[in-house]
Design goal:
Length: 337
């Protein structure tokens, strides 16, 4: 875990250094050209620098082990970090709209557009390479902060190259009012990308269901399913940064003794722990089966207390595993496999 956190910090530091360099390049490009459209790219680089700084702190904080005041650890700070990044992006977009509207009514001549395009192209390539790398490393290290930072840089790259096309049109046509129009269009795109990050941040802070995390958990449990696991219900999956917490109820034959129940619980825990990287906590509550209700879908072929034949096998899904009730109420039609 220490190695993982060091790797996260290393990539955030690289992101910060590159962002500072590209910030200087882009503002120099704006200084040369006096283009509001290029200013939009420069202002977004300020966001890159600020968020890289905050991301570094959030990764440090998320690496601190859980304590009495934070029983689930500090991983949620990564959601907060992504939210701050989104808000800053939206504020930059609103400022750009203001500047573009001003320049629309009070236009000014643009200069050295070719040199400006070349500098923006260089910064776009650098951002694109770094963004793809951060996104890849973020998924490998299970870091929302790195993934969010990478996606932001990739978005910045796309906007930079579309911006170059727009500035080229201005250069060849001499229609300078396009500079303001292009800036406003980019601003709406920037605001939308910022909103998307804020939306994801709020969802994480509010413990909104993560469909990907739930789907992965369901897949593992279906793959490792044992005949003695009559059903799994009331399952909750929470993702806090790189930490994952799974709670579930496991229905077992009522005649199992305490040792057998403990062994089955350990099998469930091991199946999940062996599949997922990072910090994983699994809490399993064991329930006894109800013979007159569970026998028809229980897969224990040698059950000594069976009261009815096996008539169906209920397929485990995110829907029936999240419900706070055993699966005996489900009918074979549309639920069995």
């Amino acid at each position: 875990m220490i190695k993982v956190n060091r790797e996260k910090s290393r990539w955030i530091i690289i992101s910060f250094v590159v962002s500072v360099i590209l910030l200087i390049v882009k503002f120099y490009s704006y200084y040369l050209t006096n283009s509001t459209a290029i200013l939009t790219d420069a202002l977004e680089s300020i966001v890159n620098v600020v968020t890289a700084s905050f991301a570094s702190y959030s990764i440090y904080l998320s690496s601190i082990p859980k304590d009495d005041n934070h029983p689930y650890g500090h991983g949620k700070i990564e959601f907060f970090s992504a939210g701050i990044e989104g808000v800053l992006i939206m504020m930059a977009g609103l400022f750009i709209i203001y500047q573009a509207v001003y320049n629309f009514f009070f236009p000014h001549e643009l200069e050295m557009l070719l040199e400006g395009m070349a500098l923006i192209g260089f910064s776009g390539l650098a951002n694109g390479f770094l963004g793809l790398k951060l996104k890849k490393e973020g998924k490998k290290l299970n870091s929302l902060t790195l993934v969010a930072n990478g996606k932001h840089l990739i978005t910045d790259t796309i906007s930079s190259f579309v911006l170059i096309v727009g500035v080229a049109i201005i250069f060849f046509t001499g229609f300078y009012v396009l500079d303001s129009i292009l800036s406003i269009l980019f601003s709406f795109y920037i605001i939308y990308s910022g909103y998307f990050l804020v939306r994801k941040s709020v969802a994480g802070l509010m413990d909104e269901t993560n469909p990907v995390a739930v789907s992965e958990t369901v897949g593992v449990l279906n793959k490792e399913r044992k005949d003695s696991w009559i059903d799994i219900h009331n399952m909750r999956v929470q993702q806090y940064g790189g930490d994952r917490h799974i709670d579930l109820h496991l229905t077992l034959p009522y005649y199992f003794d305490l040792r057998e129940v403990h062994e089955e619980v350990e099998k469930v825990e091991s199946a999940l722990e062996n599949e997922f990287s990072g910090v994983l906590e699994v809490f399993v509550h064991s329930d006894p089966c109800i013979p007159e209700k569970c026998c028809h879908y229980c897969q224990m072929k040698s059950c000594p207390v069976r009261q009815s034949e096996i008539r169906t096998k209920i397929h485990w899904t995110a829907g029936n595993m999240s419900k706070n009730q055993k699966h005996y109420h489900e009918l074979a039609d549309g639920q069995s496999s």
